[in-house]
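User: What would this chain look like folded?
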Amino acid sequence: MKITIGGLPGSGTSTLAGKLAGKFNLIVISAGDTFRKLAREHNMSLKEFGHLAEKDQDIDRQLDKQQQKIAQHRNNVILEGRLAGHFIEDATTRIWLKAPIEVRAARIAHREAETVTQTIAEIRTREECEASRYKNYYQLNINDLAIYDIILDTARYTKEQTTRIISEAVQNHKQ
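Assistant: Here's the prediction, encoded as structure tokens.
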């Protein structure tokens, strides 16, 4: 089983990936975790590193190729990242999570101990940066969700409900 989970910042992709990994005994490969790790290694904020990635296509391309390579050599994996659904051709199930920006910002602000207002501004900047990069590098419109098997608004459900809904869909989809 190969599952991809994508979504905008704060939509719950990491939470869902962890819960599904436990339920289905899968390994999680997170593009976001790798990106954050690289930002720390460069002594940059996520925002600063995102702007560097706008100028240096190799950053995104290496992350995307790394996920593709892992997916080619592994089964029983969850690939979590905004572009994973586009690059993992033999994915069993492609999932996209969404939620209104205010909900996503509140989640991130709580996690990062920031204000919601500050977080909304950071999310907007990050999303614009990423959308521009994906369009320039891959001619992808990140807002085109046609490739996804499941699209779920996580603002409507608790973490447990989201996991239950997606687990049921994944289980039925793989049969």
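Residues 2-174 form a domain with the Rossmann fold fold (CATH 3.40.50.300). If you want, I can go into more detail on any region.
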